[in-house]
Amino acid sequence: MSTLRAKAGLSTAAVLLSGVGLGLATASPAEAYAGYCNKSVTRSSALGSLSFVFEAKIPAHDKSMDCYMNRGANSAAVEALQISLNKCYGRSLDVDGDFGPATEAALKYAQGKEGLGVDGKYGKESREGLDWYWDQRSGSRWGCVRLGEYHHIEA
Q: How far apart are CA 31 and CA 6, in angstroms?
């Protein structure tokens, strides 16, 4: 009986607090990001010397990589994702910037390969857990590597 009263008391308190603006707030996943991915940014990594500078295009909201996107998006950020899905995960997407059913399916495939949550949506877990396509400024070498990881990229 006392457990039932305690639950009822907590429920009543939550309702009362929310009435004065002090309720328990929960943020939606989208609110945790800088914004919707609307462009791409280029990240560079020098391996060995300046003659081996590699670059990757990463989805971003303005200059922040802390962004999200899902089906329905259309931007340079989607193009950056599509390039990496093609090059690193063997998909054959049109690089058209349209996050449609094919891009969603390709992202789910890559998320599954990397042991990530498979939801077909792009956010922090995908950004940090997927491999990104890096190419050499001079054009000949490339490789697929996660952000922040150092690997030797083979020719």
A: 32
Angle in degrees, CA 95, 100, 105, rounded to 5:
90
The number of helix segments (H) and strand segments (E) in the chain equals: 4, 6
Q: Token digits for 136?
A: 């050499």
Torsion, Cα of 29, 34, 36, 39 (10° steps): -150
Q: How far apart are CA 37 and CA 70, in angstroms?
A: 9
pLDDT tens digits, one per residue of 51-108: 567 788 999 998 889 999 999 999 999 999 999 999 999 999 999 999 999 999 999 9
Q: Which amino acid is at 134?
A: W
